[in-house]
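anyone else get weird line breaks when pasting these?? whatever heres mine. first is seq + tokens for prot A
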Amino acid sequence: MCTDYHWGSYCHLSKLDDPAILDKDNYARNLSSIFQHLIIMSLQEILFIHLRQDI
């Protein structure tokens, strides 16, 4: 089962999945895009909190 997010798609590992969906390169790419998104979100939160403290 693949879930589409606004930053890309993520395929969940499941026995019901088509083996083509679980292509290792695609899985790694999806996983890295999720981590990149989480890092960006974290940085935005940190910047937002930092900017609010200056006000």
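and prot B, same format (seq, then tokens)
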Amino acid sequence: DVKHVQLDSMGYLQCWPLISTGQYFLGSHLCEITLKFFTSNYKDSADHLTFLYKFGSFLKINEFIEFRERLNNSLHYSAVTVEKMLLEIFLSSSHQTTLQLIEQMSVNPEHESIKFTSLEDNRDLDLCWTSDPEIRQLSKELIKTSFEHDIDLLQVRSLTLRVLCGSAQITNNDIVQNGNVENDKVKVKEPFNALENVYQQLSSMSNYILEKKYHKLPKNVINAPTDSRLFYLLEIPYLQFLKALVSALMSVYTSKQEKLSDFESSPVNKLSQAISLLSTESKSVDHTQMGSRCRILNLLTLIVEMVSFACLVCGICVDIVKPCTGSQLKKGKKKKNPMSSVHGKKVAPERESVQVKSVQDLLIVTNSALQDLETCVSFIEDKWREPLSCENDISNLMGMLSLEDVGLSNVRKVEKTMLDSYQLSLSEIHHILNVKTKYLSELQL
């Protein structure tokens, strides 16, 4: 049906604004509906091809195959698939639930499953008709630029997902079994090597994205798509934070004492830097302007993701050092072997204590950063109770020309709807932060 195909052609107008402005649960539901359409389309198309062959409509067979492949290679399909899995990870309420979700995703950290060179741009960008002069029309060059932005964003998001899955897999109990130390060393090697490999990919991608010069689409082109979320991602140390987080995890895992002394400050410093940037901007902008609110929401949702990823890595670090705490409790009973085994690695007792102390410090500073973000969100929420500035809004000006009060009444209804939407977004963000506070409190050493 046409309405189902519009989940692909018009999905960019629905999915991304919901996710980037904090409407997580509605966005997750829409992603689920969209994925069902794409998967069922590929399965049902076999029946259509059978009927075409049966009734001799051979010329239509190629058209159906091309249409099926165009949908299957849709950029929107790949992006929704990745975003749905990322949403599941950072909406998760506990560490064990998160690990189970990641295990069910069956994501290979080392290998990219998306064929970026084959992706199709199925967006319907002719929805908004305009009589502007040609210089202010949406050109093929602008469409291509927008598509390239979305491709690069998808590469970052897909790699982020693989990094998180690779991080979670290094403590997989099905792979790592304490007991025979030599066997454990062999079994441990695979997931850690996979994490090292994906970390190198993250470093390369980060350098490429940060060095590339991106240009936003001109604002005077009315029917142009909105700016990619990639631009907001580049304004904060998102990629640098992700790199520091994985580096810290690998330091804990390999028990490198020279890095353990300061590893806890690096990723959380990046997180605190992003929160500080948001706090400074929220205190300096005019909150009665819709553009300011949209920008703050986009930055805020990315920082909430950073907090969620930090909570996941904190849980993984706790899982890594738990054998250390157990060995410290029993060291009085076992005096023959001064070296204990952590995931197949022999660790000296003095290094164990440094390792455990570092993870404890990481939990403390992450929780502190989370509370700072909660304070910032509360400040924004108070500011956004103020009405929007509509003095120069065209609908308001047209309403003032009317002899009746209908125009102004409609403006007030639209404004109330928008204010309710802002409050719903902040309410969901508050809920996520409360869930992550509880998430951290359940991580015990």
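btw re prot B: The longest helix spans residues 290-329. Confidence is low (pLDDT under 50) at residues 173-188, 327-342.
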